[in-house]
Each structure stands twice: as structure tokens, then as C-alpha cells.
From TrEMBL:
The active site is at 19 (nucleophile), 21 (proton donor/acceptor). This is Phosphomannomutase. It is found in: Cytoplasm. CDD domains: HAD_PMM. It comes from Lachancea lanzarotensis. Mg(2+) 2 binds at residue 230. Homodimer.
Length: 255
């Protein structure tokens, strides 16, 4: 069944989802006129949406202030915040999911563990509370670039974060948490499954026959990997926004 609101499109049962950084825009930069024009043409044919890890304010900076009206679906923080045709859908947060009691235990364990680490330097913000996750940094998020680089080397040698994650996995094995050492000085902690596949639950009711996904970090360990390999999607790997435009023109016969 085609959703009424999409019935004006040429292929209303096809959804095309895009990662943001590296796929629609260069990393952390803004969208080009060429990408915008291509998306406007595409939207006449199919249903379109974006799904990024950043929060909505960052996505508005990158994709433009009118983005909620230019995409049929908008997913921030992998879909924890979601919009369909500009209307907000149910949202979710890490604290809501874990509850105050377990979060208290988790944060106390982390703070105790941090205080027992032997480290050459400590700065500030060791535990950052975010909407969809927590981020834990032994040196602290206030470290300068030089201090980040130093810490990264120290961590490689002493496996500080890897051991920390092992201890957390052991202590909190009853919670379905994923621990991800993605950056230089910290690791992220979030509920298992809160990767980009999280957004797919929001599109389920529209009964799409085909869901395409375009992303640049589709390799194992990349943050597009799970949705790219999900059975519900047809995955496309791109290196740049220019690649995205090229593939869209070919696939959907655009100008
Ligand atoms: O994108 C990878 C990671 O980037 C930052 O990590 P760090 O500060 O350790 O370099 C953080 O934003 C982290 O959440 C993110 O996963």
C-alpha cells in the first residue's frame, strides 16, 4: 500500500536514504548546489531521506535551514530524533533507555575506574553525557590537539581504552551495550542496535518495496556498515558527494 502523501511520485514505493558527511556533503562542510538540484529532481520520483549521527542543529548547518521541508524523512542521531514530512516522530534517548538506576551504577563504575588509572596527563570532561550515548575519555575531552596525539600514542602502548572496555563489558554484561573505540582519546557507549539501522523502524509502516542506502563508511567498522549490509536495504558505496550524484543520475535517469 502506497502512503497517500507519496502517491504523487513516479515511484512512491521506493525510498532512497543518504548518509550526510562524505555522501551528501564533504565531511563537516555544507551541501553543494549540484547535490541540492539532484535531490530536488530525485524527490519527484522517489521518497528521500537522510540519516546522520550528528544532532539536528549540525545537520541544519550542513544541509540548510529548510532541510525538513526538502526531504521526506530526516533522521538525526541515527534516527533517535526523526521527522516525516516535517512532522516529528517519537524520539528516544540513552537515559530513557537505560534508566536512572542503571545509569548511576554505570557512571559510578566509570568514575572509579578512571580515578585508578595511571596516566601521564589528565584534563577535563572525562564522562560526556549525550542524548543517544555517553562518551568516556581517560585524558578528558578538553585535551588540546597535541595532548590528544600524545594520549593516542600512550593508549596504543598501554591499551588503556581496550582494557577499560573489557572491564565494562564484564561488569555490565546484563545490559545490551555496544562500546566503540572510534576516535583518538575516548570511546562511545550506546545501546546495541542504535547504529543507522535504528532509523528503519520509522519507515516500516510506509511499506516500501525498495530502500536504497548511500554511504561512504560502508566498510566493517565504519558507521554506515550495519545499514549498508542490512537485508532491508540495497547499499551503494560512494567516496564523495560527486559519486552520489553520478550514481543517482544513472540509477534514476536524472539530468
Ligand atoms: O567519530 C569518531 C569519534 O570521534 C570522537 O572521538 P575522539 O574525541 O576520541 O577522537 C568522538 O566524537 C566520538 O564520540 C566519536 O565516536
Amino acid at each position: 500500500m502506497v502512503a497517500q502523501e507519496f502517491s504523487y511520485k513516479e515511484q512512491p514505493q521506493t525510498l532512497v536514504l543518504f548518509d550526510v558527511d562524505g555522501t551528501l556533503t564533504p565531511a563537516r562542510l555544507t551541501v553543494s548546489d549540484e547535490v541540492r538540484d539532484t535531490l530536488a529532481q530525485l524527490r519527484k520520483k522517489v521518497v528521500i531521506g537522510f540519516v546522520g549521527g550528528s544532532d539536528l542543529s549540525k545537520q541544519l548547518e550542513q544541509l540548510g535551514p529548510n532541510v525538513l521541508n526538502e526531504f521526506d524523512y530526516a533522521f538525526s542521531e541515527n534516527g533517535l530524533t526523526a521527522y516525516r514530512l516535517g512532522e516529528k516522530l517519537a524520539s528516544q534517548s540513552f537515559i530513557n533507555w537505560i534508566g536512572e538506576e542503571e545509569y548511576n551504577k554505570l557512571s559510578v563504575f566509570i568514575l572509579k575506574y578512571l580515578s585508578n588509572l595511571e596516566l601521564p596527563k589528565r584534563r577535563g570532561t572525562f564522562l560526556e553525557f549525550r542524548n543517544g550515548m555517553i562518551n568516556v575519555s581517560p585524558i578528558g575531552r578538553n585535551a588540546s590537539t597535541a595532548e590528544r596525539n600524545e594520549y593516542e600514542e600512550y593508549d596504543k602502548k598501554h591499551q588503556i581504552r581496550a582494557k577499560f572496555v573489557e572491564a565494562l563489558k564484564k561488569e555490565f554484561s546484563h545490559l545490551k551495550l555496544t562500546f566503540s573505540i572510534g576516535g583518538q582519546i575516548s570511546f562511545d557507549v550506546f545501546p546495541t542496535g542504535w547504529d543507522k539501522t535504528y532509523c528503519l523502524q520509522h519507515v516500516q509502516q510506509d511499506g516500501f518495496k525498495e530502500i536504497h542506502f548511500f554511504g561512504d563508511k560502508t566498510m566493517v567498522g565504519g558507521n554506515d556498515y550495519e545499514i549498508f549490509t542490512d537485508d532491508r536495504t540495497i547499499g551503494h558505496t560512494v567516496q564523495t558527494p560527486n559519486d552520489t550524484v553520478k550514481i543517482l543520475r544513472e540509477l534514476f535517469n536524472l539530468k
